[in-house]
Write a structure and sequence with these properties.
Number of helices: 12
Order of helices and strands: HHHEEEHEHHEHEHHEHEHH
CATH superfamily: Alpha/Beta hydrolase fold, catalytic domain
CATH class: Alpha Beta
CATH topology: Rossmann fold
Number of strands: 8
Length: 316
């Protein structure tokens, strides 16, 4: 299968960056955790009308987990709530991975972002990451007034693995009758543990997150239960047979990545279930393009599309 062409600006930036990322394998997880650390949150919010607080709260089965609370100091309160689940293939990253975009939203729309430090696979396999995240979402909703959040305008958001967990949270919130969500922002979400679409085969051995890396992430999360009926749609939302009754969704993905086909299919199935869904397929974009190169034209287009969707949902 012939791969689509890369966006020329993104390809130039990628080559200039010297990022020769290799396939994630089980024996490189610890190394990648040490390498992929975001900037300190104090640097990210420096000079911006945003404050940071962290709290320890009960996660799955009562274990302590940490959340970060980023509040606007200039917006009207209560404002919207952005519940953030970070990326990292279920194996790496922390609650500050990709947080720059959430800080932008807090600054633009006011309100509060809560970002959860869910426990990582393979040390903590499913259902720990999704249940940690759900426990933090429930805590956010229960403390909405204190946190400066309008509970009618609470949105779950995540990129890549975080996008898959955010989709799982929307399913859990529906099936457990709460908390009510105003929307789900799913950026290049990791949805399908089967990893067997045309795009997953197309990007085997190539790309910043290839088919083999995806297998490593799903194996870490699911272990021996992978490819069995024991896998729930909360872990792998593409397995859900019923997508009715979910909050409005924004989904975007690049043409040059493993997740392209599973994300397009998920959007189609949401629409078939009479869901409110907005889908963007960015031509020539590779996985995490906007996180790596936010200055690129295509990245700025993606950022604008997300903000416009948020403005529509939050203004409804």
């Amino acid at each position: 299968m012939t791969a689509p062409a890369y966006d020329s600006e993104l390809l130039t930036l990628l080559i200039a960056s010297g990022d020769a990322r290799e396939t994630f394998t089980p024996d490189t997880i610890q190394q990648r955790r040490a390498e992929w650390l975001p900037a300190p949150i104090e640097d990210i919010i420096a000079g911006r009308p945003v404050t940071h607080e962290e709290r320890a709260i009960p996660g799955y089965e009562g274990a302590d987990i940490t959340i970060s609370i980023l509040r606007s100091t200039s917006g009207m309160m209560p404002g919207p709530g952005f519940f953030h689940v970070h990326s990292g293939g279920m194996m790496i990253g922390n609650r500050f991975t990709g947080i720059d975009q959430l800080v932008d939203w807090v600054e633009q729309f006011g309100g509060t972002c809560v970002s959860v430090e869910y426990r990582l696979a393979p040390e903590h396999q499913d259902p720990v990451p999704i249940e940690d995240s759900y426990a933090a979402l429930v805590y956010t909703a229960q403390h909405a007034a204190e946190l400066g959040i309008d509970p009618r305008r609470l949105i779950v958001a995540g990129m890549s693995a975080g996008g898959g967990l955010a989709a799982g949270l929307a399913l859990l919130a529906r099936d457990r009758q709460g908390p009510p969500l105003a929307g789900q922002m799913l950026m290049c979400p990791m949805l399908d543990e089967r990893n067997d679409t045309p795009s997953s085969r197309q990007f085997s051995g190539i790309g910043l997150w290839d088919r083999e890396s995806n297998d490593t992430g799903w194996d870490a999360l699911l272990g021996d239960r992978r490819h069995t009926e024991a896998v729930t749609p909360y872990a792998s939302p593409a397995l859900a047979t019923d997508l009715a009754g979910l909050p409005p969704a924004f989904i975007d993905v690049g043409t040059m990545e493993v997740f392209r086909d599973e994300d397009i299919e998920y959007a189609r199935r949401l629409a078939d279930a009479n869901g409110d869904v907005e889908l963007h397929v960015w031509p020539g974009a590779f996985h995490g393009f906007d996180l790596a190169f936010p200055q690129a034209t295509l990245s700025r287009r993606a950022q604008v599309a997300r903000r416009e969707w948020l403005a529509r949902i939050l203004g409804a």
